[in-house]
Design brief:
The protein has about 160 residues and is an alpha+beta fold. Helix content is about 20%, strand content about 45%. The strands form two sheets. The chain has a five-stranded mixed beta barrel with strand order 1-2-3-7-6.
Length: about 160
């Protein structure tokens, strides 16, 4: 069984195989029943791992899916849906979407890259503050604010 250490950004760095900053360029729901989405990221910076990946696409698998109304109703026929798409995700954590700027901590398994500790190892750029922030539902050991400060320092230390 795999248990991720999310006690700090330093712990996440230690156990991650690849840490990148980039922009989401494509998403594909690969298994709506299992709530899995393949996310393609154009790599802009490497904080840990193969520096040759800058400018390339890295694909990783995230929890959650944004599914069509029809797909949702196939699995939830007792519900009524008034929108065209439904976010279906564990802990209500939306998977990354096209255009988002992210910093993500990844592990490499036989099947490819995965977010180190599920979606809690993904930090999204807040365009109002110009800082990367963790989802408010990430479930980490620290408050979002403290974790976000740790990530800001982590990025500064690598410039």
């Amino acid at each position: 069984m795999y248990l991720a250490d999310v006690s700090s950004v330093a712990a996440m760095e230690k156990f991650s195989d690849l840490i990148i900053q980039g922009v989401v360029v494509e998403t594909e729901v690969v298994d709506a029943a299992e709530l899995e989405t393949i996310v393609s990221i154009l790599v802009r910076n490497i904080y840990k791992g193969d520096k040759n990946l800058v400018g390339n696409i890295v694909q990783e698998k995230e929890l959650g899916a944004i599914v069509t109304k029809e797909e949702w109703l196939k699995r939830n026929p007792e519900t009524e849906v008034a929108v065209d798409y439904v976010v279906d995700a564990p802990n209500h954590e939306t998977p990354s979407i096209v255009g988002q700027e992210i910093v993500i901590f990844l592990i490499k398994l036989e099947e490819g890259y995965f977010a180190y500790s599920g979606n809690s190892s993904i930090f999204y750029l807040n365009k109002q503050t110009n800082a990367y922030e963790q989802s408010d539902k990430a479930g980490t050991d620290f408050s979002d604010q403290e974790f976000n400060q740790q990530l800001a320092q982590f990025i500064l230390d690598r410039k």
